[in-house]
Amino acid sequence: MGWSFPALRSAWTTTISNGAIEEALLRLKNGRQEMRYLVVADMTLPSTSKRLFLIDLHEQCLVTHTWVAHGQGSGELMCDRFSNQEGSHATSRGLYRIGAQIMSPKHGPALLLHGLDKGRNCQAEAREVIMHGADYVSAEFISMHGRLGRSWGCPAVAHEEMDRMVGLLAGQGYLYVHGR
Predict the structure, then answer these.
(1) The domain that contains 100 carries what CATH number?
(2) Which of 80, 83, 110, 164 could connect to 130 by a Cys-Cys bridge, CB 3.0–4.6 Å?
(3) How far apart are CA 48 and CA 109, in angstroms?
(4) What are the phi and psi torsion angles at 52 (to 5°)?
């Protein structure tokens, strides 16, 4: 691949907790085709933390660092439960290939997610787990509720972040959802 594992690993060790970047990069080294972008959602952090990291693997830099919601079936402030089951409304751990841009009737511009881990996130398409924008992902929502709002299992970001995510990631990136 076109990136230096030690350089990337050391660049964010103080920002991304519990080895999330190391796990994501190790997963990418295991036979994945080269993509330009890696998104790491570090679900070991509370939803009030900016726990989504968009990394440009070619330039070896952090492009953006922002909030990301977890599923309502995964907990309140913390994402402490994970599921691959239909109807769980929970976040699923693991590696996803980021697919094409779609227009969600409910959420607007969104990105398809293809779960690559059998038994962990392989039901993403059947569950309609997508990356989308949401009103409940904002500093104002945190101020009012003490946490971000929660999705039905989708990694939701602020609406104002979604155009950038679509422009950079559609068909050319991976998402790694890290959790305990």
Answers:
(1) 2.40.440.10
(2) 110
(3) 24
(4) -110, 130
Show the tokens assigned to 124. Answer: 């993403």
When divided into structural domains, the chain yields a total of: 1
Kindly state the tokens that stand for 165. Answer: 């995510």
Amino acid at 64: T
Edge to edge, the sheet with strand 52-56 lists: 61-66, 52-56, 37-42, 173-178, 94-104, 108-115, 130-134, 156-158
What domain range includes position 173? Answer: 5-178
Residue 40 bridge partners (DSSP)? 53, 176
Dihedral over alpha carbons 177, 59, 16, 144 (to 10 degrees): -80
Q: How do residues 90-128 score in pLDDT, each as one tens digit?
A: 999 999 999 999 999 999 999 999 999 999 999 999 999
Q: What sign does the CA torsion over 57, 60, 66, 72 have?
A: positive
**Per-residue model confidence (pLDDT) at position 3:** 47
Q: How far is CA 149 from CA 11, 12, 73, 112, in A?
A: 30, 26, 12, 21
